[in-house]
C-alpha cells in the first residue's frame, strides 16, 4: 500500500499494528525492503517482514498498543526521505503470560517514492533505555552502562524525564 507522503509511514505502521494486520503492515514496504527489529534480527523482503510481524502480532503483541509520538522527516531528494518516529508500546505479553511494562522505541524508516507512491525500503527499531549511555557485554548478557557524569553531550535525550513520546 503506497503512501501519499513519507511522514505518513509511522501512523500507517501503527494502524496496521493495532489492526493486527501483518499483511497490511508488510505492504507498506517495498518487495525487497529490509527490517531490523529491536534485538537486531534482520528480515529481508516483504514476505519475511510479514511473517515475522504475523508471529509477534498473534502472540506476544496480540494485546499491545503501539502509539506514535514525535515524527520528523528529512528529505534526501525528491524521491527519498528518512522518517523517524518515537513510539510508545504497551500491553506486550510476557513469557509468563503477564503484561510487560510499557516501553518506548525509536523507529527509522527510509522511504522511497515510486510512480505508485511512497514505500519503506529499510526500517530499524531501537529500544530507548532512559539513563543509559551504551551497552556492555557481560557473561550474563548485555547490560546498560549509565550515563557518566561529565560525559560529552550526546544529543537529545530521547527518553526525557517525563518519558513522553
Order of SSEs, N→C? HHEEHEEEEEE
**Arrangement of strands in the largest sheet:** 2-1-6-5-4-3
Radius of gyration: 17 Å
Mean of pLDDT:
91
| Largest sheet geometry | 6 strands, mixed
CATH architecture: Roll
Looking at how many chains there are and whether they match, the oligomeric state comes to: single chain
Our count of helices gives 3
Q: Structural class, please?
A: alpha+beta
How much strand content do the residues show? 35-45%
Shape: globular
How many independent structural domains? 1
Write down how many β-strands occur, each being a DSSP E stretch of 2 or more residues.
Answer: 8
CATH third-level topology:
Nuclear Transport Factor 2, Chain: A
Weakly predicted, low-confidence segments? 158-164
**Can you identify the CATH class?**
Alpha Beta
Structural description of this entry:
By secondary structure, this protein is of the alpha+beta class. It has a single domain (6-130), classed as Nuclear Transport Factor 2, Chain: A (Roll), CATH 3.10.450.50. Helix content is 16%, strand content 43%. It has helices at residues 9-18, 22-26, 46-57; strands at residues 29-36, 42-44, 65-77, 80-90, 103-114, 117-127, 132-138, 141-146. A 6-stranded mixed beta sheet has the order 2-1-6-5-4-3. Strands 7-8 form a two-stranded antiparallel sheet. A hairpin with a 2-residue loop joins strand 7 (132-138) and strand 8 (141-146).
Amino acid at each position: 500500500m503506497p503512501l501519499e507522503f513519507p511522514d505518513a509511514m509511522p501512523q500507517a505502521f501503527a494502524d496496521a499494528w493495532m489492526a493486527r494486520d501483518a499483511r497490511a503492515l508488510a505492504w507498506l514496504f517495498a518487495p525487497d525492503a529490509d527490517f531490523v527489529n529491536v534485538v537486531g534480527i534482520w528480515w529481508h523482503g516483504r514476505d519475511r517482514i510479514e511473517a515475522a510481524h504475523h508471529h509477534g502480532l498473534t502472540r506476544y503483541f496480540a494485546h499491545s498498543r503501539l502509539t506514535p509520538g514525535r515524527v520528523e522527516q528529512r528529505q534526501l531528494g525528491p524521491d527519498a526521505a528518512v522518517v523517524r518516529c518515537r513510539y510508545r508500546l504497551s500491553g506486550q505479553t510476557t513469557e509468563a503470560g503477564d503484561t510487560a511494562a510499557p516501553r518506548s522505541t525509536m523507529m527509522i524508516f527510509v522511504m522511497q517514492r515510486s510512480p505508485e507512491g511512497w514505500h519503506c525500503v529499510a526500517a530499524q527499531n531501537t529500544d530507548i533505555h532512559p539513563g543509559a549511555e551504551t551497552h556492555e557485554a557481560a557473561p550474563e548478557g548485555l547490560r546498560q552502562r549509565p550515563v557518566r557524569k561529565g560525559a560529552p553531550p550526546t544529543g537529545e535525550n530521547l527518553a526525557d524525564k517525563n518519558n513522553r513520546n
